[in-house]
Fold:
Amino acid sequence: MKLSLESLIAGVDQRWKRMHTACALRSCQTTLLMRSVPQSRGGIRMGELWYCSVDCFVKAARERFSSLPARRPLEMPHNPRLSIGLVMLSKGYLTDQQYRFALAESKLTGEELESVLGRLGWVDEWQFASARAAQWGYPVLGRDRISQSVDADIPMTLLRSFSAVPLHYSKHARRLLLGFVNRVEHTLLHSIEQVTGCRADPCFITPTEFRYQMIRVTATQGSREVVLDNSLTPAEMARTLGGFALDVIAREASVAHCQNYLWTRLSGKSRTIDVLFQSRRSAGINKRDTFSSLKEEMRSAG
Ligand SMILES: [Zn+2]
Structure:
């Protein structure tokens, strides 16, 4: 086999680059020599970024938690084109008379039409799920289709918050079917993809199906979740993450914004922890902004 000088140089160059991947924190104090020995290379990887130590990871997190970017998170509001009443009318779940009565009742009391319909008891919960599915343009799970235990890798706090539950998970295909009760929360779907690398597809289910499936959902062995509120300062938040990173001997970190949560997953060789920082809108500082851009900001940390 004939090797050209160019291919030889390219090969050496690639090996050299692999050996000398620098810490993403520009102010990193670790010497080049320490960062250059492949066997001693621990550190924490976050997407394309690599921090040579927990200290550097914490510093990058603290710096960016401390900043208050002006950018707002990308919201994906969804206003269904048809009202749920009209969908039910078109599906024959309501008569014209019932629809008009519910509409008048809603206007009179100021109640949501959905609440009025629920109170009047003219439609069952499966018809509600079916109507919501038609509104949102997603499928509704057929009756009696839920019968699986799912080894979900999603924090229960998020599932409860958004009334969503994993229904089927294909490890091979990296696909997750997620059932929603009230509305499809796109930030949850997006954050699942960011944190787990698994594509999440939505569908609608009934509240009863949701309750049954939540019981079946079993937490992944070796993983746990911690929820912290926004009373922590940016430095405390970063230090807390650092503490958990040391605890699980983290080698990988991923972070995603999920509505009013900052979801950070720290994965070690045998243990994983999900750290959820919950922000409340009533707090003076809008941490939603901080959260949403953390990943992007950590990219340029240093
Ligand atoms: Zn470093």
Observations:
- The chain has 13 helices and eleven strands.
- The pocket of zinc ion is lined by residues 23, 25, 28, 30, 51-53, 56 (CB under 6 Å).
- The CA atoms of residues 89 and 170 lie 37 Å apart.
